[in-house]
Amino acid sequence: MKRVRTKIGAVFSAKVSENEKKYFQLIAFDLTQLNSDVIRAFKKVYGIEEQPPLAEIVNGEVEFYAHCVTKSGVKLSLWEKVGSIPEVGDIKHIIFRGTSDAARKEGDPFLEVSHKWYVWHIGDDDFKDVGKLRGKNREAEIGMVINPYSIVHRIKTGKYNFYYPGFE
């Protein structure tokens, strides 16, 4: 079993193909989501043999933010820790969203679009009910703790591989 210490600033790489990889960084812990890790995944694709400087990686364009358990991904060999750098960017602007419409009983149809959204920022004590997502709230990321396989799927494809209601 791999023993990995994950701290804010840790940088990880995940294979996106046999000869390409992408990076993400642990940027916060969010008490509002089981004290889970919050990551920022970067858009740039690197060759599998490339070893870019960490400063270059973390100054790249962010593709998405997510809650996950980074240690689990390492234990499952889905990604590897490649180093740590204190620069984690400004986390105050990151918005997450959730809806009670995501919960359903077995056999119930999937709800395609929800109009019952709430949003929050990392560490918020209370969530703000907003109904329909408008303006800046449309940029909010899904705020549940996401399993490592789904994180890798989004890194590779840009989309999650599970059901969650849309907002339009």
Task: Characterise this structure.
- This protein starts with 9 loop residues before the first strand and ends in an 11-residue tail after the last helix.
- It is built from 3 helices and 10 strands.
- The protein is mostly beta strands and 168 residues long.
- It is globular and about 45 Å long.
- Strands 1, 2, 3, 4, 5 and 6 form a 6-stranded antiparallel β-sheet that branches.
- The chain has helices spanning 54-58, 70-75, 148-157, and strands at residues 10-17, 20-30, 36-42, 46-47, 62-68, 80-84, 95-99, 117-121, 128-131, 141-142.
Q: What descriptors fit this protein?
A:
about 170 residues; mainly beta; six-stranded antiparallel sheet; four-stranded mixed sheet; 3 helices; globular
The biggest sheet, with number of strands, parallel, antiparallel or mixed sense and barrel status, is:
6 strands, antiparallel
Helix content: 10-25%
Strand content: 25-35%
Low-confidence stretches: none
- Count of folded domains: 1
Question: Kindly, what is the distance between the CA atoms of the first and last residues, rounded to a whole number of angstroms?
Answer: 43 Å
Query: Count the strands?
Result: 10
Number of helices: 3
Mean pLDDT: 94
